[in-house]
Amino acid sequence: MPGAIQSIERAAALLQLVAEHPGELGLGELADGVGLAKATTHGLLRTLRDVGFLTQDSGSGRYSIGTGLRQLADSRLDPHDLRSYAMNWADSLAVRSGEAVRIAAVVDRVPTIVHHVFRPDDSHQVLDTGLPIPGHATALGKVLLAWTVALPVRPGPLDRFTQHTITSSRVLARELVEVRRQGWAAEVEEQTVNEAAVAAPIRGAINRVVGAISLGGAVDQVCDSRGAPRPHLIEQLLDAAHSLSRDLVTARR
Amino acid sequence: MTAPGGHRSRTARYVLAVDQGTNSTRSILFDSSGRLLAIRQHEHDQHFPQPGWVEHDAAEIWHNLQRLIPDTLDDAGVSATDVAAVGIANQRETAVVWDRRTGQPVHPAIVWQDTRTAAYLETLAQRGIADEVRACTGLPLAPYFTASRLKWILDNLPGARARAARGELLFGTMETWLIWNLTGGPATGVHVTDVTNASRSMLMDIRTLRWDDAMLDLFDIPRALLPEIRPSLHIFGECVDLVPGAPIAAALGDQQAALFGQTCFDAGDAKCTYGTGAFVLLNTGTELVTSSRGLIPTVAYQRDDEPAAYALEGSIAVAGSLVQWLRDQVGLIRTAPEIETLARTVEDNGGCYIVPAFAGLFAPHWRSEARGVFAGLTAYVTKGHIARAVLEATGWQTREVIDAMNADSGLPLRSLRVDGGMTSNHLLMQFVADVLDCPVVRPLVAETVSLGAAYAAGLTIGVWSDFGALRRNWHRAAEWLPTIDATRRDAEFASWKVAVTRTFDWVQ
């Protein structure tokens, strides 16, 4: 087998052994089973555990197949699971910021709103849940475009919604580089006049981006006099995104 | 009104809520805008000594609370002297009996889910006294309520009744137990219950709000055992240790607390809490509304020196637990929220209806012999249709309870305020709006039970001036408006009603 990578072969052998004897084998038996030194085996097992492919019983020290591996064949995070995990964080972000909060994910290859919390001022608002959003004209969409491999920016002109909409795919690509660098995206009157939003990625296992969370409202609420998003709102957003991501990783391990 | 206890900080403006629930106890700190600052939670053991028996260790619950309160204050960086008041919400109808001198429970607490007294209540029903009990207490002769559990302890614990008559034992529901301990236990503990909890005891006259001698005779309960009944918004006493000097300024049963937290202060306001089961409470104002349709009249809350506000309650036994069943027993979904994904693969229920009468049907039918059915199955039905039917079952059961409430109270529902875990299911919330033909509204603070306890306590001592101030704290986080075509709704409701009749008379 030319070019086979030894450590992957060894990891696969360990996984196979654990799958055949779930919860029965500890470090010593596994090292013997695959014919490796304990130290080497330990490093492999620890890595497999850290990525969620194995779990270790805290009492006996024996290994079982982890949920991460079991979910691998269908590892897409269900958008309704995402909403369920996000509810409390989204609610408290709306309370802290005084703005509307939305969560989006890629559903059937389309950026889609999966959760929406009204701006807490009891004005008339309508739930956006389930609506597709234009990737290039929204903060949520830019976050999803920036980190989703399966969501390429198509070349050619992009739909215009306002005079501030980015319509050139080259300009958009440059902006996405900046989004990835700073860790969040902004939208200032690009989809709707007088409205602005900021969005940040929600990360699941192995730091993979599984969705985006935004807060948005009137442009003079969200942005300062120079048209830049207010730093305290960005901080609140990133706090919420971080807490939600942490919950997601813990809950799904 | 100002807080008693001269050593309260002049700037005290935080309210501590204790939510003593069936599975866990929570301690939650709110600021004066009703914002949640810190929350701590500790589960307690569930004991199932025999089928149908459910017990808690009240000493464990008190022990947990003694750790939770300081941790909550630490988390928020708030000193105990900055706590203006403590409010308590609790699991209802759970019976605790303890020794006045040692402060130790003399028997495990018998939990509201426990059905050990069902046969005894059946003998009472056969003696034809159900009407008398209902006329006095408002309650049907069901093991759900507290009196028969207290009687069971007195009958089965040797010497208990004599000790109770001598005043050596004390009885209470969980708020009674916690208030007694918080106010100093054996030395200085205050032995009181709040009127909403007392309204679930089957020992209180629902109109006079006093213990009723005929009911005490019926269940053979010595009066010396019983706590004093107090209004819900009332200074029950001062905490001795955990929050020294802070007044305990409210206590409410958990469902009543949720009604309060949803700011349902006016007659006609209603809320539904969607958990494993679902609880609808409709505020009926100062007028007691009795039900001929299987709803339970109950006290919603009472302020000092004011008449009680009443509510009609309709409970649905199986709501979220049907989704859990689909996940755990049937294996059609991996997680509960995934049911929405599966349900959205189809446009409608494909003619399939599921009536989850797993242990009979609660309101408005109260059929203990009913068992669940899948109805309308054809070869066309897919798992997507089944997922829809599972969610629709909760919607239709809500509709049945609301219809009964509208008819009993003459107060047509304007909108339904919802809380609980199932509110994360937007398909279900839209369906509830469709079948009720009225708006369904979710508030921004999801912790309505603890919020209600905090609101009630804060109102008592003046953190908030009036109901209006609390209403201004309430914000809409989501709203679902009816969109379904009326003809389709009526036709599907008719099918649901037929499906319900198919569950009847199963257990002979």
If you had to describe this structure to a student in words, what would you say it looks like?
The complex is a heterodimer of chains A (253) and B (508). Chain A is built from nine helices and seven strands; from the N terminus they run αααββααββααβββαα. Chain A has 253 residues and is α+β, with helices and mostly antiparallel strands. In chain A, the strands form two sheets. A five-stranded antiparallel beta sheet of chain A has the order 4-3-7-6-5, with helices on both faces. A two-stranded antiparallel sheet of chain A has the order 1-2. In chain A, helix 2 packs across helix 3 and helix 5 runs antiparallel to helix 9. Chain A starts with 5 loop residues before the first helix and ends with a helix. The mean pLDDT of chain A is 89. With 508 residues, chain B is an alpha/beta fold. In chain B, the strands form six sheets. In chain B, strands 15-16-14-13-19-20-21 form a seven-stranded mixed beta sheet. Chain B has a six-stranded mixed beta sheet with strand order 3-2-1-5-12-11, sandwiched between helices. In chain B, strands 4-7 form a two-stranded antiparallel sheet. Chain B starts with 13 loop residues before the first strand and ends in a 7-residue tail after the last helix. Chains A and B meet through helix 5 of A and helix 12 and strand 21 of B.
Short description:
The complex is a heterodimer of chains A (253) and B (508). Chain A is α+β, with helices and mostly antiparallel strands.
